[in-house]
């Protein structure tokens, strides 16, 4: 990875660092007041609802700083939050960032500068302005918490809770094996979500951060305890899942169902809209029709011979599974 280019004097203290960040973060879009006061001021578009999401990433849990580098960490920290905005079919507009910088090797300022490069690069791709945050330092690992603010389109937000029996289930890309590297470079499907939202009334929508079986399970639970039948042969398997399968012996399909951090979208729509979207997906979306919503609770996998097997949600869970690192 090429090293980020940093111009200007090197910040040496907390307030120098804040000034350095402020000088490189002009206000834009709905930002009335950005970095420099006790709070930022945002002016949402008329009639829009505010959408807010936050994620905390920790060295040793979500990434390994010494392997990935702080710039990649910054891109991931912003990207996972932007993916949550996409999961509501909303537009991101601004972000705040809180960091705990590691001081044990004297690299806190260098890490902060590289982290800022990654954060701002990811934000700029989607028109997001950095409007504030907080900077601390300690003798522990790097911790980054990003909060992104977005606003809904005139059609409103799409929630997890709207799936209906008979709906078709779609995903927007191949799944599984992200641990081989894609987990560090999420591609938020914001343009895809907005295009799909404009093309059809989406009933339920979620991003695949914890694994298809787990995240679709959230949709089923929030939609009143419904079920879903997935067609084993229709689930798109990423080449990374095949490569990882050769290492650990788990099937590529199991990786596609269970691995986290794909950051594709999963959504449900009425059958008629599903046929239309499948025939002519709105740009830039790629669509894979993988199953249907049913009244029988639970998640089921349908084989080519029509037989059904129960699938237990097995995506990543911070409180149940040990750290996977990065």
Describe the structure.
By secondary structure, the protein is of the alpha+beta class. It has two domains: about 15-150, 2-Layer Sandwich (60s Ribosomal Protein L30, Chain: A), CATH 3.30.1330.10; about 160-310, Phosphoribosyl-aminoimidazole Synthetase, Chain A, domain 2 (Alpha-Beta Complex). It has helices at about 15-25, 65-70, 70-85, 110-125, 190-200, 210-220, 240-250, 250-260, 270-280, and strands at about 30-35, 40, 50-60, 90-100, 130-140, 145-150, 170, 205, 225-230, 265-270, 290-295, 300, 310. Strands 8-10-7-11-9-12-13 form a seven-stranded mixed beta sheet, with helices on both faces. Strand 12 (about 300) and strand 13 form a beta hairpin. The longest helix is centred in the middle third of the chain and has 18 residues, at about 110-125.
């Amino acid at each position: 990875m090429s090293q980020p280019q940093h111009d200007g004097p090197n910040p040496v203290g907390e307030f120098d660092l804040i000034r350095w960040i402020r000088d490189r973060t002009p206000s834009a879009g709905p930002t009335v007041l950005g970095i420099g006061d006790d709070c930022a001021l945002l002016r949402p578009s008329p009639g829009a609802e505010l959408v807010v999401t936050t994620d905390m990433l920790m060295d040793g849990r979500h990434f390994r700083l010494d392997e990935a580098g702080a710039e990649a960490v910054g891109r991931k920290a912003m990207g996972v939050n932007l993916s949550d905005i996409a999961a509501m079919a909303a537009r991101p507009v601004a972000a705040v960032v809180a960091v705990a910088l590691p001081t044990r090797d004297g690299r806190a300022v260098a890490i902060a500068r590289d982290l800022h490069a990654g954060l701002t690069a990811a934000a700029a791709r989607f028109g997001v302005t950095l409007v504030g945050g907080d900077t601390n330092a300690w003798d522990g690992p790097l911790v980054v918490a990003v909060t992104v603010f977005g606003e809904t389109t005139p059609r409103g937000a799409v929630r997890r809770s709207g799936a209906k029996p008979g709906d078709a289930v779609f995903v927007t890309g191949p799944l599984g094996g992200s641990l081989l590297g894609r987990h560090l470079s999420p591609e938020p499907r914001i343009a895809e979500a907005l295009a799909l939202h404009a093309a059809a009334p989406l009933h339920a929508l979620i991003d695949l951060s914890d694994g298809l079986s787990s995240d679709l399970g959230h949709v089923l639970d929030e939609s009143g305890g419904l079920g879903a039948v997935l067609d084993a042969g229709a689930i798109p398997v990423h080449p990374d899942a095949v490569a990882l399968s050769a290492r650990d012996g788990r099937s590529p399909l199991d990786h596609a169902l269970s691995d986290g951090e794909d950051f594709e979208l999963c959504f449900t729509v009425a059958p008629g809209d599903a046929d239309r979207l499948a025939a002519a997906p709105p740009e830039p979306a790629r669509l894979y029709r993988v199953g249907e919503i049913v009244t029988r609770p639970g998640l089921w996998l349908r084989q080519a011979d029509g037989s059904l097997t129960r699938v237990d949600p097995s995506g990543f869970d911070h409180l149940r599974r040990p750290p996977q690192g990065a």
